[in-house]
Amino acid sequence: MVLMNVSNSLPVLCIVIPCYNEEAVLPITSGLFLGELADLVEEKLVSDESRILFVDDGSNDATWKLIRSLAESNVHYTGISLSRNRGHQNALLAGLMEAREFCDISISIDCDGQDDVRAMKDMVIAYHDGCDVVYGVRSSRKADSLFKRTSAEGFYKLLNKMGVEAVFNHADYRLLSKRVLEEFSHFEEVNLFLRGMVPLVGFRSSSVYYERHERIAGESHYPLKKMVALALNGITSLSTKPIRIITMLGFFISILSLIGVIWAFVVLLMGKSVAGWASMVSLVCFMGGIQMLSLGIIGEYVGKIYMETKHRPRYIISERTSTKF
Ligand code: UDP
Ligand code: MG
Hints:
InterPro entries: Glyco_trans_2-like, Glycosyltransferase_2, Nucleotide-diphossugar_trans
Order of helices and strands: EHEHEHEHEHEHHEHHHE
Shape: elongated
Number of helices: 10
Bound molecules: uridine-5'-diphosphate, magnesium ion
Subcellular location: Membrane
Distance between the termini: 30 Å
GO cellular component, one term: plasma membrane
Structural class: alpha/beta
CATH architecture: Alpha-Beta Complex
Pfam family, one: Glycos_transf_2
Organism: Gordonibacter massiliensis (ex Traore et al. 2017)
C-alpha cells in the first residue's frame, strides 16, 4: 500500500522579508511570522516545507547575526545577506528570486510588524481559488500621520494619471505564484518599482484588505526625501507621460508666444508701445522655469537610460544561512 503524503500536494510558501537595521523589531516580529506560518501549515493551506526568508539588506547593526541565530534555532527560518545596502526594492527582488528556486508561492512583507500577518491566510485562500497575484491593500491608514496619508493618496492618484497601474493603497505586501516569479525574472530593469511592475506581468489577481499598524519598534527608513525619490522613480521608470506633457506644454506655450508676438506687433503699429518691463521680466522668468523643469524631467529619463545600459547586477548575495532550503 502506498501512503499518500498530503503535504506534498500543498504549495510550498516562502515569506520574504527585507530587513535593514531591524535589530529592534526582528526578535518580536520573527515570532509573529513563524506563528502565522504554523497556523497556515496546521490548516493545511501550505506545505510544512514552507520557509521564512529574511533578506539582510547590508545592515550595519546586529540584524544578520539575529537572522543567523534564528536559522539555527528553527528550520523554518532562512536568510540571505546582501553585500551592501541596496534599498528596499532591490532587497525584496533578491528575496523573491531566491524564493523562486524552491517555493510555489511567495508572500512579501515588511519586517516591522506594520502589515497584519493575519491577511496571509486570505491571500493563500485566494491563491487556492486560482489567483496568481494577491495584493495586500491597507483598509485604513490610521497609524500613518496626516501628511503621510495625504501625500500617499496624491501619489497613487498621480501614478494612475501617468498611466502606471498601481493598486491604490497597496505597497509591497503581496502574494505571487511561482509562475509570476518566473515571468518576473525576465524583467531586467535596474530601476525597480515593484508595485508598478507586478501588474504588468498579468495573470489573475485579487486583493485582500488589512489594517496597517504602527511600527513595532525602530524608525522608518522612508523619510520625505526617500519617499519623493521612490515616487519619482515609480513614475519615470514606468511611464513616459511626463515627456508627453512637456511636449504639449511646449506646444501650448509656443502658441501663446505667437499670440504675444502678434499682439506686440499690433501695439507697435498703433504707436502705443510702452516699456513693459514688468511683463517682460515675468515672461522671461516663467519661460525659464518651464525650461528648467522640462530639462530636469528629460534629464531624469536620460539618467535612467544611462543606468539601464550598464547592466549592473541589482544585488550581490554575500552570505546564506544555508545553501539548501
Ligand atoms: N528596508 C530595506 N532596505 C532599506 C530600507 C528599508 O530592506 O534600505 C526594509 C525595512 O527593513 C522594512 C521595509 O524595507 O522591512 C520597509 O521599510 P520601512 O518600514 O522603513 O518603511 P515605511 O514602512 O516607513 O514606509
Ligand atoms: Mg514600515
